[in-house]
Amino acid sequence: MRSPILDYLDTLISETDHISSGEPADYIPELAAADPDKVAVALCTVNGTVYASGDADHQFSIQSMSKPFAYALAIEDQGLERVRDLIGVEPSGEAFNELSLDPETGKPRNPMINAGAIATHALIASEGQSRVERVLKFFGSLSGRTIEIDEAVASSELATGDRNLGLAYLLHSSGQLAGDPQESVTGYIRQCAASVTVSDLALMAATLANGGVQPRTGERLLCRESTRHLLSVMASCGMYDAAGDWLTGVGIPAKSGVAGGIIGVLPGQVGVAVFSPRLDGHGNSVRGVEMMQRLSEDLGLHLMEAS
Ligand code: GLN
């Protein structure tokens, strides 16, 4: 028998696919070529059951949704204290690519904006392989599938990555970057170009919802404390300068990416992922935000709702 959850997800797509405002990101030329009408949603329970609808097999680059997972890896490798020494946990209230560090501490304000994510990437231990290989393997364990880089997206961003290079040199000059600026940016950009589907992302998010244990394999990929810390940072900083609107309206820890994906995590319950390439002024998917808002309302996901 067909699950009512699948019917619900089909309805969610059909009720939001008329929304055509916003534009795909164009500061990375390859992303501007995305089909703007692609749309998908997936949900994964902490038991590992995935429900998906729309263009659920369509692959797109993970972009900033890689940031929370890379941050978790850096914490596992270096310990929370060392990571906290270099990267803050305060919402910036600024755009994701703002050229700024906290004036008092000289640190990036949090790991969800580019400054913090570049510093994070440099903290991942390479363990005899490149950092990017390590990150890809980690994404593979989280999603249960081999994850590869979309080389066209990676080279397109590498060719236009001056702003991220500027950020890396700024970090380096204030002693907040553990690696070489060029190498850190190249690694960070390749990390962002990992190619995923909404089903992959729902499983990755469900691993966070499940306290760090991949729901299908039962493998503990992150310790409970890092997972809790990371989800707290996603809740306060994951949606950049729209973080307050998001927490009040949708009410779950989330992270968006400029290719049009958004993941959300309801601890102990479910991981969700949506995709649609047209973005609003904050760099968040317009249809994606609408789908997440409806999911939160219809399924009662808001964390602050008394049950
Ligand atoms: N790779 C992108 C960048 O650094 C990620 C930004 C995003 O998804 N918000 O600009």
TrEMBL record:
UniProt GO BP: glutamate biosynthetic process; L-glutamine catabolic process
Tagged with keyword Transport: no
Family the entry assigns: Belongs to the glutaminase family.
UniProt gene name: glsA
Record's keyword terms, sorted: Acetylation, Hydrolase
UniProt catalytic activity: L-glutamine + H2O = L-glutamate + NH4(+)
Gene Ontology MF: a single term: glutaminase activity
Stated name of the protein: Glutaminase
Complex and partners: Homotetramer.
Binding site for substrate: S64, N114, E157, N164, Y188, Y240, V258
Keyword Acetylation: yes
Organism: Nesterenkonia xinjiangensis
EC number(s) given by UniProt: 3.5.1.2
Taxonomic superkingdom: Bacteria
